[in-house]
Amino acid sequence: MKNKSLIIFLVAVGLVWLQGCGEEDYPVPPASTVPKFSVSIDNNEFAPATVSFTNESIVPERAGNVTYLWNFGDGTSSQETSPVHLYETPGVYEVKLVVLTESSLEMNESTHSIVIKDPNASGIPLFFTNGSTVFTALINDQPPVVISTAITSLQSSYGMVVDTANDLLYVADLSGKKILVSNLDGSGLRDFRVDIGDVSTVAIDYEDNMLYWDTADGIRRANLDDDDVSQYEDFVTGQSNDPEGVAIDPVNRTLYWNNYEGGVWMKNLDGTNEKSIAGGDGGGSVLVIGDRLYFDEYIQAGDIHIKSANLDGTGVSTIVTGVSRLMYGLVYDEEGDKIYWVDRNNNRIMRANPDGSAVEPWVTGMSMRGLAIGKKK
Q1: How far apart, in whole angstroms, are the C-alpha atoms of residue 4 and residue 253?
Q2: Residue at which a domain ends, from 116, 138, 169
Q3: Containing structural domain, residue 106
Q4: Residue 95: CB partners within 8 Å, gap ≥ 6?
Q5: Is residue 55 in a domain?
Q6: Mean of the per-residue pLDDT values for the chain?
Q7: Residues 6 or more apart from 22 whose CB is under 8 A from it?
Q8: CA-CA distance, 259 to 317, in Å (whole number)?
Q9: Do 162 and 205 lie in a common domain?
Q10: Can you tell me whether residue 346 is helix, strand or coil?
Q11: What is the DSSP letter of 206?
């Protein structure tokens, strides 16, 4: 009862205080200077590239005279309002604009990373998505340079696959309930299949020229040569545990999938011998490398394991622990003999030897989901 009386008293005091406070008691703080700039890069962003910086800073009248200090990230600088700068060497440059004001005595800054591409760069392209945009970077002996493709308006994408025979990229858009296809740079984007269920991952069978994908309760497939956006057939049905990752074993003509709620399954591509081959608490990816199967499994929050097994599900071993979240994309670089996966909650792509040794980050500092790997260029 005492506590209740005290609360009523404090509320009453607060109301009296609020009623006695007019707008004149809350002066509007003076406007601050806000550094902003936009960037335009010529030569299709390939070195040598001329970059035009457009100063869009917001400077209130009270600021007085203004000085602009530009650092172009390559050891050079400028005090022009909107400078133009030539980058002769490819790379990722952190450009900083500092705005100094004479009267308001402010010093505010804004930074922007720009990518100048190497026209002679070679390597194996790796693709990934943040859900709405598809990015790519080359696997080579240089630090990865991440570049956005022209695919920037996905609803909620998780998985994708590269058609290495035709240099095409197939992208699963979960919320859009469709699969899109484009050139590897993202141009020519179009619908491949629509109204196909909750699709998160895709895989290609080159021998029969078929694309496979998961739904909430099964696996579907479509003919890559058929342009009808509604053409598909159910290949696996009645899966109550929500299939996620799908992978093709081209040698033994087998489809594998990993269920979100637990269990790795297999089925021959001729439609026979559907069965569960490994238990567990669920995952989002599966991968075939030679005579070994790789998949992720939920152990507990923040501790997802990558496991390896024989193709029949026997001989299971744990090769990586401590992955932050279920994975939608587990790929293999045959030339470098490395597996790659997304550590989603830590905003990074990781890689390791197939036995789980030499684990290291490859790309960091970005929100990312699925992975797809192409052929060397």
Answers
A1: 73
A2: 116
A3: 37-116
A4: 39, 53, 70, 71, 72, 73, 111, 112, 113, 114
A5: yes
A6: 92
A7: none
A8: 18
A9: yes
A10: helix
A11: T
The model's pLDDT over 348-374, given as tens digits with 9 standing for 90+, comes to: 999 999 999 999 999 999 999 999 999
- Residue 360's CB is within 10 A of a number of other CB atoms, namely 9
Is 237 found in the same domain as 145? yes
Q: How many CB atoms lie within 10 A of CB 162?
A: 20
Query: Reading across the β-sheet that carries 243-249, which strands appear in turn?
Result: 243-249, 254-259, 264-268, 275-278
Residues 298 and 317 in one domain: yes
pLDDT tens digit string along 174-221? Answer: 999 999 999 999 999 999 999 999 999 999 999 999 999 999 999 999
Residue 21 pLDDT greater than 80, yes or no: no
Strand partners, 78: 70
Q: What single letter denotes the amino acid at residue 298?
A: Y
Q: Is residue 126 helix, strand or coil?
A: strand
- For residue 199, give every residue at least 6 positions away whose Cβ sits within 8 Å of its Cβ, in sequence order, or none: 159, 172, 173, 174, 177, 178, 179, 213, 214, 215
Asked if 283 and 326 count as a contact pair (C-beta separation under 8 A), the reply is yes
Count of domains for the chain: 2
Q: Is 131 found in the same domain as 77?
A: no
Tokens linked to 9: 């008293």
**Do 66 and 188 share a domain, yes or no?**
no
First-to-last C-alpha distance (Å) of the chain: 78
Tokens 């990312």 belong to 368
Q: What per-residue confidence (pLDDT) applies to 28? A: 57
Query: For position 17, what pLDDT does the model report?
Result: 43
The pair of three-digit structure tokens given for residue 67, joined into one six-digit string: 């000085």
Separation CA 122–CA 115 (nearest Å): 16
Cα separation, 65 vs 79, whole angstroms:
13
Last residue of a domain, one of 116, 150, 165: 116
Total-model pTM:
0.78
Residues 222 and 108 in one domain: no
- 45's tokens: 């962003």
